[in-house]
Amino acid sequence: MPTEKYFDQAPPFPEDVPKLSIPSISLLSLQNGDSETTQKMYEACQVDGFFILDLSESDGGKLLLQNAEQMFELAGEVFALGSEILETFAYQPPHDLTGYKSTGKLRTDDGKLDLIEMYNINQDDMVGNSPPRRNPDPIQRHRENIKEFIHLCHSVVTIIQHRLEEQLGLKPDQLSSFNSLHDQSDTSVRLLRTQTQTVTKESSIALGGHTDIGTITLLFNVVGGLQVLPANKENLPANWRYIRPQPNCAIVNIGDTTVEWTGGVLRSSLHRVIKPPGEQAHAVRQSVAYEVTSHESRASEDPTEQFKIIKLLSCYAIQSSSSVSTIIFQKFPLYLPSPKILQLSLNIIMTRSHKVTDREYPAEGEMPARENLPRYFAKSGPTDADPRKTKKDGGGKGNWGRSGEEVHDYGYTMNNARRRSNSSIQGLADFRTKFETIEPEPVFEEKLHGPGDVRVADENAVTKVESTSSSAESEN
Ligand SMILES: O=C(O)CCC(=O)C(=O)O
Ligand SMILES: [Fe+2]
């Protein structure tokens, strides 16, 4: 979320609405490797997969805030072009999700049409990983600003990943190396806008419930309307909680790819955008999201990597209810994941699958009935799909979707549809895993480099990337 300047222009967020309790994490403390802050962030990533990132104390964070404001201004210019011009840059689902999506292209959870306009700017285009694309004039004019925003967001994502690597007992850069800025990916800067919703429209859901498909999302918003379904809650109207936008902060959420990579240790939660609460419904709602996606071509076929092992492990354990240790030694006699991840992952598999009221997994000893199978076998995915397959013919590139729910029957939808409770492990197996050891790339970790100006004069000085989005449902 940008600075007070934007907050001052918006009506106040009401006090009397149910809010999700998530911690505010100081970016500076993360940069400095503060253990208490790191632990708090790690816990938040395990509980709901959402936290507030306070950018205000960090030099890099402050620069990012200024850049985020520029992105808000850019969004104003882009959407001011009007739908006639923007439609000439329309996204081309399912293969190319860069570009403009007008309202009404997606179904919301209540079967109505979405109310949100989006413009997806392609990171590869901006940083020069791919041939230049045709873009609306404001985007062309602000390429340098967009590039700088991308570099800064990427640095922040890398810092978060470094702290998570430490907590998870992973090697340094094991997560962040999958998100190199130098590799092609479907990472995008997404501009979003919803018109005022004072007049009750058919639906109050602007963007249906979904989880983000990618690695991590950094979200900047000012006006409320973002809601999260807390962990293991049924998808009922009374269970959704608002996230209150905070000045000088970003909202960070874990995407499904990270859930997969960590064997379900970290969580992605269902979220959606509804009519802004109270007086805020009079405001035009704008947000900017940096959605990191790991590049598909980076998915290694090497079965020895620990993430893949954990992913497969999770699937086998869920499906067979066999002893997980038997499975791991039968399938992968030579390899073991980080003991910490393994332990946490196994705990999660065992406890989550038995606790959730609306069970997605069979209880011990039961044959898995189709109704109880994870999402990729069930309603929102091809029922015969191999859970270890990539989402190429499922969600497709980028983060906009999965088959079957698009209004125009494009063969994809915006997000990862989820029908029941908000248990992120259900998404474990339908994302491919990316491996590979990448050269370390510096970020603005002040402990290491001192609080300097992180302007991207040298592109190599701030690096690493990717994220996405997936979908679901809701009511209301
Ligand atoms: O606009 C928002 O607050 C959330 C948008 C979102 O969830 C997404 O683009 O994936
Ligand atoms: Fe999202």
Sum up the structure in keywords.
476 residues; alpha+beta; Jelly Rolls; 2 domains; 8-stranded mixed sheet; 4-stranded antiparallel sheet; 12 strands; disordered C terminus; binds 2-oxoglutaric acid; binds fe (ii) ion
Describe the structure.
Residues 465-476 have a biased composition (Polar residues). One of its GO terms (molecular function) is metal ion binding. Belongs to the iron/ascorbate-dependent oxidoreductase family. The structure is a single chain. The protein folds into two domains: 4-298, Jelly Rolls; 301-348. The model is unreliable at 296-301, 354-421, 423-442 and 446-476 (pLDDT under 50). It has an eight-stranded mixed sheet. The longest helix is centred in the first third of the chain and has 26 residues, at 143-168. The protein is built from 13 helices and twelve strands. Helix 10 (306-320) packs parallel to helix 12. With 476 residues, it is α+β, with helices and mostly antiparallel strands. Helices cover 29% and strands 12% of the residues. The protein binds 2-oxoglutaric acid and fe (ii) ion. Fe (ii) ion (FE2) is lined by residues 210, 212, 271, 469.
